[in-house]
Amino acid sequence: MIGLKGIKKITDFELRDQVVFLRLDLNVPLEKGRVADDTRIRESLPTIKYALEQGAKLVLASHLGRPKKAGDPEFSLEPVAAYLTEQLKKEVILVEEVRSEVIKQIILTLRRDQIILLENLRYDEGETANDPELARYFASFSQIYINDAFGASHRAHASIQALPEIMTKKGIGFLIEKEINFLDQLIVNPSRPYLAVMGGSKVSDKIDVIEKLIDVVDGFVIGGAMAYTFLRAMGKSTGISLVEADRVKYAGELIARIEARSKTLLLPIDHRVTTNIKDTKFEVTADANIREKMMGVDLGPKTERLFAEAIGKAKTIFWNGPMGVFETKEFSSGTFAVAKAIGESSGVKVVGGGDSASAAHASGYAHLMSHISTGGGASLEYLQGDRLPGIEVLRGKNS
Ligand code: ADP
Ligand code: MG
Question: Is the pTM of this model over 0.90?
Answer without folding.
Answer: no
